[in-house]
Specification:
about 130 residues; mainly beta; six-stranded mixed β-sheet; 2 helices; about 15% helix
C-alpha cells in the first residue's frame, strides 16, 4: 500500500492518499480545494491514477476539492447518500465497498459531526474525518 498523510495548515484538515502498489490506482480522502495542485503533483510523482475522491463530510470548515479533482483526473467522487453537496457522483450507504485496483475501501456511516458523516476503512486503517 502507498500511503501519504497531508495536512492543510489553514483548515487543519488531514488528507489521505492511498494507492494500490500493484495497479497504481488510488483514492484520496478529504481533499482540500486549495491544495489540488499539490495532490495532482503527488499523483504524478508516485505514478498513481486517481480512481475516487472521497469526503468524510462537507460543511463550512471543510471545503472539498473533490469536484475539481474529478475535472482534472476523471476520478469518481463519493460521499454519503444524504449529502447535499453537488459534486457527488457515487452516493454511499453504510457498509458499501468501493474498489481501487486490488484494494477496497468500506464506507461506515458515522453521523454526529454532520448527519451524513462517513468514516472509511482501508485494510487496517480507519479514516474518521472530524468524527
Amino acid at each position: 500500500m502507498i500511503f501519504r498523510q497531508l495536512l492543510d495548515p489553514e483548515s487543519f484538515t488531514y488528507t489521505y492518499l492511498i494507492g494500490d502498489t500493484n495497479t497504481h490506482e488510488a483514492i484520496i480522502i478529504d481533499p482540500v480545494l486549495e491544495n489540488i495542485n499539490q495532490y495532482v503533483e503527488l499523483l504524478t510523482q508516485l505514478s498513481l491514477k486517481l480512481t475516487y475522491a472521497l469526503d468524510t463530510h462537507v460543511h463550512a470548515d471543510h471545503i472539498t476539492g473533490s469536484g475539481k479533482l474529478r475535472e482534472l483526473t476523471q476520478c469518481e467522487t463519493a460521499m454519503h447518500e444524504t449529502t447535499k453537496a453537488s459534486c457527488v457522483g457515487v452516493r454511499l450507504v453504510d457498509g458499501q465497498f468501493l474498489h481501487f485496483g486490488k484494494s477496497k475501501v468500506q464506507a461506515i456511516h458515522t453521523p454526529g459531526h454532520t448527519p451524513c458523516h462517513l468514516a472509511y476503512r482501508v485494510e487496517d486503517r480507519v479514516f474518521t474525518g472530524d468524527a
